[in-house]
Amino acid sequence: MSQSNTTLNAEQVMLERHSVREYKRDVVIPEETLNEILTLAASAPSSWNLQQWRFLVVKEQANKDRLLPIAYGQKQVSDASVVVVVLGDLQANLTGHQIYDAAVAAGAVPQQVRDTLVGQIDGAYTSAQVARDEANKNAGLASMQLMLAAKAKGYDTVPMGGFNAEALVKELNIPDRYFPVMLVPIGEAAKPARASGRLPLSELVINESF
After folding, report:
1. I need a labelling partner for 112 at 20 to 30 A (CA). Which of 24, 52, 73, 182 fits?
2. What is the average pLDDT score of the chain?
3. Domains defined for the chain, CATH in brackets
């Protein structure tokens, strides 16, 4: 069961989402609810609609425990209900072929438009740096949406960049096409998160030009 049955509006979800590092063990997120969270996360925007992310979901306790040394002993990867390894796709141009071929078959996009778009995408992805930048950028969008979706369903999260990426790739047999962008544990907080301070808009917003 989620922490709360109260429905939060979008503003509340954004303001009440805080990074939680201590979770109740042995809490099971219903499969239907987890799929709803992942579906909401997957609705994030992406460049060319390539959806340059994949969600590697780790639920089994033994597998979560395997992540402990990889995450330098941070217990949230073991205690949370689920750990989502957000992956960036370095060959997302291949997804472009799939998406735009389907769009042509459905009559949604003319063949000429498909060919132009796919040509642009394939051209951009000849650059390894572009491929990695796009993967990082778009996986970041999906990660934020994942955390907001979890909060909307009554669960807490924490974005984690502190892990041994090379060891994670080896341990979970991640193909070369993908690389880990971040870990996102999801579960019920063992104690309330402490809200962190935010800079005032006067320090964050630049109007028109520097």
Report:
1. 52
2. 95
3. 10-90+135-188 (3.40.109.10)
